[in-house]
Amino acid sequence: MANLLQRLFKRNASLENPSTPLNASTLGNFAISSAGVSVNIDNALSVSPIWRAVRILGETIATIPVKIYRQEGNIKTEDRSHPLYYLFNIEPNRLYGAFNFWETITLHVALHGNSYILIRKNRETAQPRLFEILEPSEIEVVKISPTQLQYRNKKTSQRFTDREVLHFSNTSKNGLIGLSVLNTHATNIGIAIALRDYAANFYKNGAQLSGVLKHPSKLTQDQYTRLKSSWVGQYGGSRNGGKTAILEEGMEYQHIGLKPADAAYSESSKQIISEIARIWGVPTFLLEDLDRATFNNIEHLSQLFLKQTIRPWCKRFASEIIRKCFTREEIAAGYSVEFDFDDLLMADLESRAEYNSKMVNSGIFSINEARENANKNPIENGDNHLVQMNLHTIDKAVIATDADLQ
Predict the structure, then answer these.
(1) What is the pLDDT of residues 179-227, one digit of tens each?
(2) 3-class SS string, 193-239
(3) Mean pLDDT within 4-32
């Protein structure tokens, strides 16, 4: 049935058919995996590596300050008076703070492939005054012209223009709609769910799977029923593991089942963690798999995670914000938005101190700018930029060298 629906959706949905939503082929909130497991957001998140991976992405991005800059010539200054600074860093609206806002957006993109945020603008200034997160499963995206999209809420029948909705998307095949991770990786996620359910059933029904009782003679139906009921009641389930069985009338117990470790359960679990790590771009050590982790490679992998996973997310968000949250006049005036994750790139105090010291000694930072990076208050006369006395410009260095030769 699921394959039939997928074929129908793929055949009918197209960029040339404005009556059909572009995201119709996502089949809503579920997918059927080849492992025979229905994959949806709730059971996917119940798998601990998936929960951990998505949470790491959301919490990491939610901790990154969103800065509003204005470029005037060669001078770029931060503008904290701009309405977007408050909305993105403090309170997008009165229902939730900035941390929950960015964490939820990331969750939607990481699982659905798309996140939709309604922009409520000030009628007089045309600047955003609040943001409202929309439920991704309720939104249909329709191409109504070669250059215009429309967002439709299936639940409320509301329609929004493409300039009224911030649309953060995952990797896309058409540049418009992000691919759903639940659908794209339904098989891998389904295997993870099936493996978890297998482990739960193994421990729940341990006595029935672990071996057989051998009786020297034939049992009547009544004897069989009473023996089975007694055995399962006394020794079945994980709570009764390790008990000593007392056998009567020449009965023998023969073990035929395999423990999870013997059945390579542990190895399968590690493979699942590796698959989840690849899907979401999260290092395995962050998913609590430390088998191959060392102090040195953890530091390197952490930096790699920020540069190759977190930075692209931030760039994608910033690009959409610039397109839809600034007026044309603001863009012409040099306004832009950046996710500042310098603090994450310098996680330990020693690295931060060395970085600030080099920036001050080279004249790039003033002392007060370095103090700000260290979360310290400015000091008097700390705005001056310093240079080392033994440094010269190249032309002066050449003149001095020629004089020495004479």
Answers:
(1) 999 899 988 888 888 887 777 766 665 544 456 666 677 767 877 787 7
(2) HHHHHHHHHHHHCHHHHHEEEECCCCCCHHHHHHHHHHHHHHHCCHH
(3) 49
Give the pLDDT of residue 113: 94
Cβ(175)–Cβ(168) below 8 Å: no
Q: How much of the chain is in helix, strand and coil states, percent to nearest 5?
A: 50, 15, 35
Token match 């994959």: residue? 39
Q: Give the per-residue SS3 of 124-161.
A: CCCCEEEEEEECHHHEEEEEEECCEEEEEECCCCCEEE
pLDDT tens-digit profile of 310-353? Answer: 999 999 999 999 999 999 999 999 999 999 887 776 656 667 77
CA distance 231 to 381: 83
Query: Counting Cβ atoms within 10 Å, is residue 293 exposed (0-12), middle (13-18) or buried (19+)?
Result: middle
Give, for 315, the enclosing helix (H) or strand (E).
Answer: helix 311-325
Average pLDDT, the chain: 79
Domain spans in the chain, listed from the N-terminal domain onward: 1-206+259-345, 347-406
CB burial class (10 A; 0-12, 13-18, 19+) of residue 217? exposed
Is-contact 47 54, C-beta < 8 A?
no
Over 90: is that where the pLDDT of 377 sits? no
Query: What is the CA angle 136-142-148, rounded to 5?
Result: 115
Contact 117, 171 (CB under 8 A): no
**Do the beta carbons of residue 150 and residue 144 sit within 8 Å?**
yes
Those residues whose C-beta lies under 8 Å from the C-beta of residue 149, and which sit 6 or more positions away, are 141, 142, 143, 162, 176
Contact indicator for 33, 181 with CB cutoff of 8 Å: no
35 Cα distance to chain centroid: 24
- From 54-63, 248-257, 325-334, 351-360, the region with the lowest mean pLDDT: 248-257
The amino acid occupying position 293 is A
Q: Which residue has the tokens 């103090």?
A: 371
- Grouping H, G, I as helix, E, B as strand and the rest as coil, residue 34 is coil
Distances (CA, A) of 117 to 93, 136, 229, 244, 357: 12, 9, 57, 60, 41
